[in-house]
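Thread: quick sanity check before group meeting

JM: Hey all, I'm pulling together slides for Thursday and realized we never actually wrote out the predicted structure for the chain we discussed last week. Dropping the sequence here so it's in one place. If anyone has concerns about the input, flag it before I start.
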Amino acid sequence: MPTIPDFRVPSGGSVDTVFPAATGGRRPYSYSVSGLPPGISFSHSTRRARGTLPTVLVDTTYTVTYSVRDSRSATDSVTFTVVVVAPAAPPPPPPLSLPAIPDSRLPSGGSVNTTLPAATGGVPPYRYSVSGLPPGITFDASTRSVSGTLPTVTADTTYRIVYTARDSSGTIVFGSVGTTVRFTTTVTASAAPPSDPPPSNPTPSPPTTDGGPIVKTGVNVSSSRTYPFTLSHRADVSVELTGMTTDFDCTLSGNRCTNRGGTRDDSWTGTLEAGEHKIVVYPYGGGSGNYTLTISAGAPTTGGSTGTRTQVTTLVDASETNISTSRTYSFTVARRAAVDVALTGLTIDFDCRVGSSRCTNRWGTRDDSWSGDLDQGSHSVVVYPYDPGPGNYSLTVTATETITFVATPLAGGPIRLRVCEKDSGGTDTDIVLPGSCVEVVIPGGEGDPDDDGDDDGTPPGGGGPVTPTQTGVNPATLTNRIRDCGWNFNEGDLFGAPRSGGRTHTGIDVQTHSDAEFSAFRGGVVELPPEQPQSCGWYVRIRHDDGGYEVHCHLDRASRPAAGARVEAGDHIGSWGGSGVHGGPHHHFKLVGPDGRARDPLEDRSAAEAAGFTFRTGPEQCEAPE
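JM (edit): ok, ran it. Output follows.
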């Protein structure tokens, strides 16, 4: 067999060659080949190898053995190598950049119609967004056009605009410009009327409502908006960003909300100290949109018996398309937690890495994953393609934390939550909008966690002091509390019953049996808490079509309908579960109108019963009323 030299051939190239014939021995000869690259076939009769070489990302060597056998079974062979050479990597694109935009001065009330410059470099196509535009000015991301009528102002007002370009690799470039709106004021010849004397209380106290959440609505918002708030005591705070028509994100005193992407609901929960805090809501994708911001607070717990609860937080929730290069996702863990990474929906083979640890790679388009404990601080997930070409995937990163809680309400009086709203037009000095401040008094900070009328923790109907628990019933308090499971109340259970500190009861407490099932008072959409509040327990909130809502406390978690479900009056929405702080089986029910004020559900008792607000008991009957 003659010697065959080694070869270097291009990735993806074609092969059509004839191997040399053997000499000597006794004919006829029988030829064979092993170790050819994938895609190359060999004809024993013609000694021809032909086909298309594989496409490789790195140089790949194949060891080929060419053998011959004559008619007397004498053999010989020759070995050589074939190196399939990977194509040279394309040069990286130039960096993504935006040209400088000069400052401008425009007349008050004037019209604007201009086009912002295009980005260069990076990986087209580009996505553009603008924040901080003056009121009345809109931005069309598809054409980069800015148009509209400038506001009429009474003093020079500066708007700081951020023009953003994002290319298909995820790179972001910012260019800042400042636009000054100029105006003039004409002073008439007549003397100005004397100014009124300053009011004795130039900063009126904000209106005080019941202990429900404070709701702020943003309509046609195109720039960031700030909501400063103060807490009179340390409290568990919940922030919900719902009803979005474009993608808005939020931060609370520098901590980012859980961002679920697009117009899905975002949220933040945590414990904050007494003092000043602020929530910033800002658009992510440019343009104007609507949202509803709900801020609620409750008494934290300290002392007494302890326990733990599990809290699962979504840190990254991303669905990506047409990705051909690596992408990094950063996230922060507030405390040491068990972190799970799921890489799903792959259309090509993607791999991932958490820090320096590689994910479990199940090859091809099967799901990959990573699980482990991460310390407090910043971390990142890198997702990178193994196969060439663009592909799609979804990445989800969740953190599971075990949080220790204690079950005795924090003493120190009711918690006052005061929320205002600042002008977000981008002015140099944010000004609190007149009439925007609202204050609520949250019960439960003084030993009355379920607002049942006693300021010493003793439930209506007698019995010993309540030992607050997360679940279960204090048997000493059951005397005279189990009635006929219908519309049956003690005097202190009714709406408007006196409470400590000059407050009144803002709901009703319906005496129930442990088998009681609860129905919706009015139709609406179900809203569920992300975790169990300390006092109300697992609850259902039904958001009515007119913007009001109703709340049902102390339920069994598994009996509740799904969040987002539509229910009508009379539909089953849960069963007694003993959750939260309570003194025995009862149903704490609260009704809030669209104006944010609590209402008495029994104002029209016949209408309430006709609406289906009833209790259906189990096989064990309740005691007859005394």
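AS: nice. The chain is about 0% helix and 40% strand. The two ends are 112 Å apart (CA to CA).
JM: adding both to the slides.
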